[in-house]
Amino acid sequence: MTKAKDIMHPGAQWITRDETLSRAAQVMEMLDVGALPVSDENSRLCGIVTDRDIVVKCLARGRDPAKVTAGELCEGTPRWIDADADVQEVLNEMERHRIRRLPVVENKRLVGMISEADVVRQLPDDQVAEFTSAIYSSPTST
């Protein structure tokens, strides 16, 4: 059985909610990633900030990334998955919430991230097709 830890990109790092977006961008560049989990003062996941967030929610609105914090951009309930979760649980979580990146946690510690690229690289074509269809399809009314 394939688990989250089998398909994740290991060694993920997070930044605190008090870090500026300038610092977030520097860490993203250093790690060659497009998203960083954000932690609160208790070292708990409180959100994710992406390179797109920095551009659209900060720069495009004329805000200063040296003054805006990562915590100001975190929205909604953060999603994560346990490292021992079955890959189907990973796909279900990403599909249900239409998210493209999912932090992986083990013993309450961030151990990795799963992105669309990880899913595509690691899973069979039929699972990839179902996943991309769910993520990229228009939301339906219920």
TrEMBL record:
What is the name of the protein in this document?
CBS domain-containing protein
Q: Does the keyword Zinc-finger apply?
A: no
Task: Give the matching PANTHER family.
Answer: CBS DOMAIN-CONTAINING PROTEIN (PTHR43080:SF2), CBS DOMAIN-CONTAINING PROTEIN CBSX3, MITOCHONDRIAL (PTHR43080)
Pfam families from the xrefs? CBS (PF00571)
Q: Does the entry feature the keyword Lipid metabolism, yes or no?
A: no
Task: Identify the Gene3D superfamilies for this entry.
Answer: CBS-domain
Q: Which residues form the CBS domain?
A: 8-65, 73-130
* InterPro entries tied to this protein: CBS_dom, CBS_dom_sf, Diverse_CBS-Domain
Q: Which UniProt keyword terms apply here? A: CBS domain
